[in-house]
Amino acid sequence: MWSLQGRQVVHQSGLVVEVTEGSFSNPMDLAIKGGNEFAARELALLIREGIDFATRREEDRRCVRPQTPKRPILKLKRE
Q: Residue 64 above 60 pLDDT?
């Protein structure tokens, strides 16, 4: 139903929620495109659902990063 494309979340109906300032976890300014065929309540629910989807995706991307083991510390001694 939803797809994440950079700073935009796109619904299959064509509704686009874009964060113009901030991030999806803390949006300061949103730009909504499309969604004229929805009632106000349905549109609000879809916007909230899109932001939740994007927030979960951001968390998934943070967790997926491979953690590289620390390199051993090499100490050279003169004799």
A: no
